[in-house]
Amino acid sequence: MHDHIRIFEASIRGRTLLIFIQNVSRDWGKEFSLVDVNLEIKEGEYFVLLGPTAAGKTLLLELIAGFYTPDKGDIWIDGKEATNLPPEDRKVGFVYQDYALFPHLTVKENVEFGLNLKDHPDVRGRAEELLDMLEVSYLAERRPKTLSGGEQQRVAIARALAIEPRVLLLDEPLSALDLRTQEKTRRELKRVQRELGITAIHVTHSQPEALSLGDRIGVMMEGRLVQVGPTRDVFMRPSNRRIADFLGVENILSGRVTSNQKGIATIDLGGDEVQVVTEIERGDVEVLIRPEDVILSKDFVTTSARNSLACEVVEISQEGVLNRVFLDNDIVALVTQRSLDELKIRPKSKLFATFKASTPHIIHLDELGTK
Amino acid sequence: MAIKLKGFYIWMGLAGSLLLFFSFVTIFNLIFDQILRPKGLLGALTDPSVLASIWLTIYASLLATLIAVVSGTPLAYILARKNFPGKQMVESLVDLPIIVPHTVAGIALLMVFGSHGLIGQFSPLRFVDALPGIVVAMLFVSSPFFINSAREGFQSVDPRLEWVARSLGATPWCAFRKVSLPLASRHILIGAIMSWARGISEFGAVIVIAYYPMIAPTLIWDRFLTTGLKASAPISVLLILICMTIFVSLRLLSGGERS
To answer: Minimal Cα–Cα distance from B169 to chain A, Å?
Structure first.
């Protein structure tokens, strides 16, 4: 007990640690339990909790918010032991997956809810400010039911920010949105978080979401936090096979968009040039390719809308019916035993790695600021 | 619409209209009979004892409903939100008045609230043949209607709305008042209307504990026994008309709040 108080006080002096979770367990039936979760979250960071459904991610958020209490372990928020503190005393903003706006109140009244309870000196002004920041002022008098998913989400964020929370908890905030809105909202989330310098914990099951938003990520599986680290590190070096399988993306190539013609960008990967379908016009990007989307061949593939890169095999590892082929340009391909035999792939074989222009996922680094 | 389905709905409709027709004929035959010969109705309207009994019925049932709302709302909330050992027992207890014959309810009430009853013997308030007796009888039979409706209302409110309210700084009491209560208000109002209506229509339990002062159903029974159909039918119609006016307007009002 005394030990972690000391650690915590030390870190508070350094103004770094905001949330400190120690040995937290909560038994809640087979599917939704938490087992021995330890987690430290620094002030101002965007932390993403990534994991498959029913991994306990939402439950962990709800424990931090104080909606439930852990069976074991303790939770510290902002230098105070908060394990048994009621939610109203935690200053934690919560945004649920389906936003949970108060249906009987207008958008403005939703945002004013927390301000009124706090006796804020300028309830109306502050609410307007927040709605402005999230670009939803025009909805002020509407009821939540009449709003689109994206609009509801902005309102829910504005409502949570109204209480000037120490930490913003976001439970799958993008999953109910269509793809286009998702991308826009993703940028928006990061912008708001950066502007306010607020600490955010974001729960998701989507790998691209974690990659594009997280300063650090924690991977959760079956109620355990199985790996925590800077986002890129976790994706590049999953600590075991199950995590690797879940993360899926092993090919993360850095590059720069040099031109874009009608939605097809040319990306310079530092030597090789590839064509990828994206709206991004310019700037540094990361190109994510799933290993199963990489096709290996002896000859250069000339079909349009495909990229063929010359490379050499470094290593082959067999995994059941599939083989993971590591290439010298940092690309990993997943191929069947049959194609391995047909192509006579061995270490040092000279090959071409091919992928469609439409398969990679692109992360635009410039618009995400400091990443 | 598919032809087969059309036939299906016609048959279902025909079978259903049998029941509708039965209720309609029974009620409206009585009403039209009196309206066509308005002498009896006018007589009832000018009879102070009739008006007093109708007013007493409405007023006593309103009191019973108020008690049901004050105590039943928290009970409904707990039943909607919490699981606890013996919850099923509590739920059965809530529904019990629906299945108990109402004369039995009256006798049971008499044994509690009568002048030698469990509570009655200590109570400064007189229940037998008095307004409090009418109110407890009405409360007993009407409370399940209120509690069940209010519980449904609270069940329809996502508990996460309360959690969010808490995270925004609301105490449990404040979250209840500002979020759950307004969102369940329609169900609560409908429950109150149902319970009020049920109270007004009660006869069996009331006459056992309080034959006097006469509520309208008692008066109707009394006139039927002493003077016959001619005297009791106009009062019945008057009661029906007054109640229908109240309930239809309340239903419209509560329906209007839905949007």
So the answer is: 4
